[in-house]
Amino acid sequence: MAREHAALLDALSSAVGPAQVLTDADLRAGYETDWTRRWHGEAVAVVRPETTEGLAAALLVCSGAGAAVIPQGGNTGLVGGSIPRAVAKRPQVVLSLTRLRDLEPVDTAASEVTVAAGVTLGTLQAHARASGYAFGVDLGARDSATIGGMIATNAGGIHAFRHGPMRAQLVGLEAVLADGSVVRRLPGLLKDNTGYHLASLLAGSEGTLAVVTRARLRLVPYLPRRAVALVAVGGADEAIALAGDLRRRQPNLLAAELFFDDGMELVLRHAGGQRPFGEAHPAYLLVEVDGASDPTPELAAAVEAAGALVRDALLAGDEAGRERLWRLRERHTESVNAEGVPHKLDVAVPIGRLAAYARDVREAIAGVAPAARTFLYGHVLDGNLHVNVVGPPPDDETVDGAILRLAIEMGGTVSAEHGIGVAKVGWLEADRGPADVAAMRAIKRALDPDGILNPGVLFP
Ligand code: FAD
Ligand code: MLT
Ligand code: ZN
Fold this sequence. Notes:
Shape: globular
Strand order of the largest sheet: 14-11-13-12-16-17-15
Helix content: 25-40%
Mean pLDDT: 97
Strand content: 15-25%
Bound molecules: flavin-adenine dinucleotide, D-malate, zinc ion
Oligomer: single chain
Distance between the termini: 27 Å
Largest sheet: 7 strands, antiparallel
Number of strands: 17
Structural class: alpha+beta
């Protein structure tokens, strides 16, 4: 393949330096398969620019050659959007952002920071914390997921009901368009109504409109004391009622995560550990609160006050104890992956219908794939449930359809936080309707007339 595309590869080498153009199959491999192993494709090269200028030059080269550009950050995305794919009938270049790693000092007067797109969430969190701040978004893939990828997917995560998703943290950004031009708005002006807010448009655009290279982000005060409670409950109804109750009575509620006993059992089997309670319970709600002083007694009182909703509860104020409880929730993703190639669907429904959805979706899955195994977990106060199915072959989309159709019927969305990617392109119009999709396509045509940016993602 390298010889066939020699001119393209030479021009890319001139743009970013030959050492940053990977063509060997072994070196490309990690960039060509997604985190779930459900999707795979082949790239002509993986290009890893170190500067915005180098990236813009590489984009111009691809645009001139009619090559498809697949932006990639940490490759932790769960909808197949960050790797090459068969539908793109032209040479594909993976544009890796991981070498754009610049971190500016925290602007303490503005409570903001500017970072390059390839900085991982974990690095940003540590950087912010050193100045007494926290970043408003957190998620389990924090050590690999990049700020650029999180903006592109408008990642939500475990603190979204308190601080909002990525879009809500974005004050401004720098991005390179398909023609190599650079849009940049980074002065850190929270109030800035001069024209369209391009940062908001690019949040959730999944690499189809521009490549994000830098972002100006809001920070929140870091409250150093934390307490976590794992509460055993009778089912999703009880978990939702308890989460709502705690949200009202605990203004510092930071996370409220739901999972079920089959998921807990799976985590213990794959990640090790002991059952936290003497007996199994149908469902569990994990909550975290933060504060300037120890919030454990207040959380204990709030859980106690919930009365009959609580079957059993464990509290932890120390770091090791909190981590022991959190791993029961956070290790779900890798434990499901260890069972086979999963079908991962990420829906949200109005919170009043979440318990009914959790019940009905199991039936809908059993109706089309009786031998499949289903694991549910999610961010309960966002109405966001992750539906994971193991068993059906990776390319059989029947079960995906049953799960997504039910979410739409219940007034929900087919993508709460992971995006559409290639996984759900067939469902965009069913969810958003023809007028919305026509407006989105018009934006896409205006910014990327030749369709070189992430073809096959978002639109069929
Ligand atoms: P990638 O996977 O590399 O890319 C994702 C998409 O963004 C692709 O379409 C890609 O083309 C595009 N893209 C990447 N970088 C850029 C850029 N600089 N400019 C333009 N487009 C770009 N997600 C949540 O929302 N909430 C969670 O709680 C959560 N938990 C997770 C836990 C685990 C264990 C794992 C594996 C994943 C989890 N995710 C979660 C999904 C994933 O981490 C997020 O989607 C994350 O935002 C992806 O970041 P990334 O850098 O890995 O992006
Ligand atoms: C989570 O909340 O754990 C993530 O979104 C990843 C997943 O859905 O497995
Ligand atoms: Zn999630």
